[in-house]
Amino acid sequence: MVNVKLVNITKVFGKVVAVRNLNLEVKDGEFFAILGPSGCGKTTTLRIIAGLEKPTKGRVYFDGVDVTDLPASQRDVAMVFQFYALYPTTVYNNIALPLKSRKISKKDIEKRVYEVAELLGLKEKLHVHINKLTMAEKQKVALARAIVRKPRLYLLDEPLTILDPVTKIIMRSEFKKLQKKIKQTIIYVTHDQIEAMTLADRIAVMNEGVIEQVGTPDEIYNQPNSMFVGWFIGEPGMNFVEASIDRDGKTVKIGEQILLRSNELVSKLTEKGIEKVVVGVRPEYILLLKEPKTCLKNHALLKGKVVVTEFLGTHYIVLVSVDKEDIKVKIPPSAYPKIAPYKNQEIYLAIPIERMLFFDINTGKRIL
Amino acid sequence: MTKYSLELINITKYYKGKKVLDHINIKVKQGEMLTLLGPPGSGKTTLLKIIAGLERQDQGNVMINGEIVDDEPPYKRKVSMVFETLALYPHLTVFENIASPLIAAKKTKSEIRKRVEEVASLLKIRHLLERKADKLSGGERQRVALARALVKEADIYLFDEPFINLDAKIRTTLRTEFKKLKEALKKTMVFSTPDPLEALALSDNIAIIFNGKIVQYGSPLEIYNNPLNIGIARYITGNILNELYAIVEEINGEIVLNVKGFGQSKTLTVKDMVPEYVDLMDNYIGHEIIIANKANYCYLVHGKSCEGLVLEAEILGFENHGSEILLYVKAGNNVLRLFTSKEDIKYGDIGKKVNVCIDIAKSTFFDKSTGLIIR
Amino acid sequence: MKNVILLYKIKRTLRTVLLILIVIIYLSPLYWIFTTAFKSRAEMFSNIFTISKFTLENFEEASRYGAFEAIKNSIIVTVGGVILALILSVFAAYAFSRFPVKGKNILMFYILSTRMMPPIALVIPIFIMFQKIGLKGTYAGLILMYATISLPFSIWMIKSFIDDIPRDVDQAALLDGHSLSYILFKIIIPMVMPGIIASMVFAAITIWNEFVFALLLSSLDTRPTSVLLSSIRGERGFNWGRIAAIEVVYILPIIIFVFLVQKHLLRGLTFGTVRR
Asked: Can you give the pTM of this predicted structure?
């Protein structure tokens, strides 16, 4: 178990700044995910923690000790990669190898290997050559090889990306169960938000070399600190619409349509002296209506035109244009025939006020 | 004016003795978008290249706008294509890449500039025109490839898995944008993808290709609701299909489905659950069938009543999809998936016993021995 | 933990010192040549590492001996050989890569096999052939010979670079409406430039240093520097100063050339390892 702290880490490759002034703390025994699109710097960050990459600036601390100059082999860290990287031999030998170079007695090695194999359900396959294993089993061997060393930190770099959906789900549960049993700090890098949201205690969302937000899955989903986080998390991501604030009329408008009127939120925004703001709301919270229903309390009503609809099996996504802004609405299959949207159809959107979030138009950071 | 922009008649192609395409017959109307949906290696790319004239079929004909074009070289066919690998020219700028078809057509400099800027604006890459093509991100390269295809005046536009190499997030964003573009352009398009969701979202019609053969053709809704066999059902729903086996029996004059795999007997009366199937099921007495149920028609029962089949299950794991949870449970010998809300589940719940309700009325039935749909 | 870091730093310093020693050992012959070339006869064996009197007399002697004509000849046959090899190998590589040539594999292996034979085995037939055709002693003869021996490596190298370009790029260009020559010259060649430069450099180095065929096929007027150097044994032993001077003039052009193209060379050699 270890507490990992990164202080002002910057990493430059030639002219490219891969990681910029990054500060991060992973608590003891935490399952921590670093989530972000390709090229955001998450793998580089992981490699800096592992010691495979030296930061251009900044320090790395394990339990308060500066390990920045320590090479990877000395950090007592185990890493599991996307492509298992196994040796062409039996499962047993693969798992035993990290121990062999440490001068442990043969009997002890055997004991530890059996322990770990039991933990991961590999006991029956111990003497099988890795060529005869399925992808999931191979990944389990890679995992076993990491666990058997009893490191104080596990680093996983998208280990499940190559597996099929059903195996992925089972492996995810295994990870979580494992973590509870071995109580180690795990740092998990992925671009799959479902994976991060399912497994992690806390997530750091990265984009273009910086951390946009750190929080629990719920916090990240319901209270994104920036437009990027709002957009990246959720499928489809959050809608963003430009709105203007009319201090005299005490309203927030999208184009000519009034979104909010004489509301606590309007006052707060006016107080901050803001004239233009970005409103964010998730597609699944918006209601699609054929006729305007003014009786809906605590909802803002907007009029728009249907642009396109996408059928995705378990739901539909309807793209509605409101005053030149595009808003996506997610509706279940049962709701679709009642509205039967067609191109350029006049349609109404009911947006619950409590689900609206407000972002700064210049920085993209959340205001309310 | 022929009705069909593109017609493929009995297209067959061999590669090293094996049939890569087997008697493909397709008709695409003017302005329609057809998607070729199939797993990797099913022959989609080969078919698109045959349409473009980059490869030659061994048997059959390709007709564009009513004329047989088998002997026409690629350029003469008025076809434009986006390749799976994008095939951009890395040493040229974005402008030069997009302008390539116009340069080959020997258009004037001013004409080229106008057209390229037009298309670049449409695809929101105007600011990238002077950049070298090898210095772009994945999403930007995709747009350049699209721009190059669209700048060319063609009768048919082909797209070979154009979003395949992108991050999931960018893929879904581009998908919606592409649909907008498609609606605005109204050109005849053939799109290929291995992703069923992409096919469902974008197309007017889908042709599902397995191993070089078309196994089903229809609109997205048609295929989704009435897949011709269980293999197609699994593929098109993308891993949210629950399958239960049952034997059709006649008990006291009533047709029932005896659901297997639970130790105890669980029967459903056809007349109560799915009355429209009573006559059909009559033909299947004694046969084993598959009850296929989609995860969004499967619920956790909180003591309330269930208008379907109730099963005892144990929670295996789940996926946090943000707005909802996809729950995996084990019921008898089966692994079932269902959607539920976030409030219902926590990590500590793994291993917990729950009751699951399957909405039989929203299920599809298949003959287990043939795999074919019952309807 | 702190001890481990210290130990690691010590190991690293020792490694660096060792590396510096190795570099010094490697470079010392070159250093000797350069200092000797600028030393007068008197100093030749007295001061090994330094020059007290800087003199150009060795270069004057070398030019009287014919060194600058020899360098000129070296340059002519190298440039000629490389250019001819380049033109031929680019076309051949493109054909082999993109077109269904009958017996392609056999042909490629045959081409490669010509380099597996020791040149000395060919001297007699080549000599007789060239003499009969009247190419012996001419620049053309040497250039032709050198292009021939450079072809195998060049074709293989450039072909593998072209192979790395997906066929889709050719097809996209075809679909755009471009002609085959446009595709070859405006698209394929620019894309494989690192490979072309790499093979050019290897060809240049090989030809520049080549001795056997130079000796065989050149005349007194056309002999390159390698042949000149071989004739340098005098009656009273070796005139080291003159030798060193000729070698300095011999080494410099090729070093400058490789220095200028090294950026492209590195790209060419490591091309296939780009992370996607």
From this structure: 0.83
